[in-house]
Design a protein that fits this description.
With 493 residues, this protein is an alpha/beta fold. The longest helix has 20 residues. It is built from 13 helices and 16 strands. α4 crosses α6. 25% of the residues lie in helices and 19% in strands. Bound molecules: zinc ion (ZN). The site of zinc ion (ZN) has 5 residues, from loops.
Length: 493
Amino acid sequence: MTEGRGPTGTLQVGAVVERLAVGPAWLVDPATGRSGPGEILVEGGRLRAVDWLSGEAAAGVDERGIVVAPGFIDLHAHFREPGNEDAETIATGQAAAAHGGFTTVCLMPNTEPPVDEPSVVARIGAAAAASGSPVRVLVYGTVSVGRGGEQLAAIGELADAGVVGFSDDGASVRSAALLRNALLYAGMAGLPVVEHVEEASLCAGAEAHEGLVATVLGLRGWPAAAEAAVVARDLAVLEAVVEDEPRARLHLAHLSTREALDLVRAAKARGLPVSCEVTPHHIGLADEWLAGARRWAWEAVDETGRPRNPWADGALVARPYATACKVNPPLRSADHAVACLAALADGTADALATDHAPHTVVDKLVEFGLAANGISGIETALGVLLAAVDSGRIGLDRALAALTVGPALILGERLGRRVGLVEGEPADLVVFDRGARWRVTEDALASKGRNSPLLGRELPGRVLATVADGRLAYADPELVAGAVSTDGEAAGR
Ligand SMILES: [Zn+2]
């Protein structure tokens, strides 16, 4: 189906997709709310045709086979450049994103130096352009100078330089006064403040979610209340700021607890301009993974929704204290994970964001308490999400909306393109085989960060092709020979 071919005759990343025909396949367009059997045709980099099929032409096509959706948007990723290119570069991050089905990524500003002035924005943009990948790289600026939590960064200048919002990610905005000013000035620029919610005074030396698993493993507890405490503070500040600046917007990053999500649910019901994201690992994994369990979080709750005891029911299959499971916020007990998934399903959580946080081996190959926080997750996000769909707790349409229109609404005009299967627009889409499973191995990952607790596991939903801005971002090596042909005779299932 593909001819994004370079002079050598091989599929080449960055080349305009001259011709790509897919179908009959299952099309999902969250922008219009439509999904069903259909065919698409890309020509000269543009989405030339989107044909919905019915009757005999649609027979046998369902959502369990090849799926076509708009390219995914990640609101939260760390590509480590500038400053820690051993862990990830812009180029390797873009390759990893494309392998995960993402065509747009928003990078957190906690690089070295941090993104607290326009020159760093320009530097990242130049690296993205130089890589040859068509994956669009957007960046957040910091809230405070140097992420120091004292002095407000040059919000206006950073906005003019093209940032998509402001965040001191890695820590909460240190004071309510600083947050108030950030919401006000970012609001004047029409941009959100993206908040990492963690009450630092409750988390000093914290290693694992406070509960049974931390107690048994002897790890210092990381209370759920540390998250809700900051969410409550932030919502109170937001409510006051919107009186003066109605464009003020607060986006809460990687929420992990039921209590925080309940606060957001109530705030949204009151009409406050707040949005939030959850991550694949906080919906799919639970704190019992630290003890050596490897079942999905939704399999780790009993009929009443309480977490099962992994020691009592033989769920421990891996070694304990795997530092690949150490992340901030921590993997929570399974009841919290199920609450995160429910929030994604009911729309309380607007987006699934990966918090892709690659680390070098040296930063993880240490004792648990000293290991760096973070999971390399941009390539496994779709697989975890599809496993959640398979559990019946969220529908495919809603799941894909959380990767497309959900984050697009938060980015607004700064996204710079329309989202959806829109005829005539530059093609921006992902083709994946929902029925095909792939094994997460170090060799299978394009990211430099191999710090994934999913290594060795099979995930559903193999990405066949990712097209960004009309150009090829990723193609499965076997796709060229198999499921997809160059003459438009694509295998539908
Ligand atoms: Zn964070």
